[in-house]
Design a protein that fits this description.
This protein is of the alpha+beta class. It is built from 6 helices and 7 strands; from the N terminus they run E-H-H-H-H-E-E-E-H-E-H-E-E. 33% of the residues lie in helices and 32% in strands. A 7-stranded mixed sheet has the order 1-2-3-4-5-7-6, with helices on both faces.
Length: 168
Amino acid sequence: MGMSVTISAAVDEDGEQILKLQYLAFQREAELYGNYRIQPLTQTLDSLKAELASGTVLVARLGDEVVGSVRGSVDDEGTGRIAKLCVHPRMQGHGLGARLLRAVEEALAAHGGAPARFRLHTGHKSESNLRLYRNAGYVQVGGRTAGDGVKLLVLEKEAGAADFAVSA
């Protein structure tokens, strides 16, 4: 029988694995948009380490390997901001992204000053991401163009909103 995937808080030593995973996982997005300058592909290790020190960073592990990651923080307006959800390509399609999303929502809600809502963004062509977020109860509330030129959709859900809809 194989190992199971566990989700836990990231530690400083996970930084390099997270960055490598992020680079691998976001290749499909870069190809989709014909833009290899998207922020997840240009982020530095120092910048990632700063996120590890200041925000909520979760990892999914299969044994010692980091196979998924997500980041979150709560802003001054009480919005839980979720970013850079990524899953190793060989692990996609098995519900790990949904597990990571739910885990970061729970982690942000458990901290003092629980968020009133959760907000995230994804590229407008990223259908699998949009499907995941819509199944989790997120709705589009706006859009913007990132500094790299990619059109992003901004999605939100109220904290405490019904969790993931049953999908066929």
